[in-house]
Amino acid sequence: xxxxxxxxxxxxxxxxxxxxxxxxxxxxxxxxxxxxxxxxxxxxxxxxxxxxxxxxxxxxxxxxxxxxxxxxxxxxxxxxxxxxx
Length: 85
Ligand SMILES: [Zn+2]
Prior knowledge:
With 85 residues, the protein is mainly beta. The chain has one domain. It contains one helix and four strands, in the order H-E-E-E-E. It has a two-stranded antiparallel sheet with strand order 1-4. It is elongated. Zinc ion binds next to loops.
């Protein structure tokens, strides 16, 4: 995740926190490999010397391709939980 300004809470991270997963095979609730394809628009600000600073990142869209349980090594038994559960 790209957060552009130090100390500024990232709106995207807040969105991700509302998503939870569970592996029904081993009971894992906390560790997953999540593969995501993201489309972003970034403000690239180059100094005169050519040093790049990315000052703003906007997420235009994303697709979760795969969620793997870290313990099982596959995502066959991973289910998505609603926040209320
Ligand atoms: Zn598992």
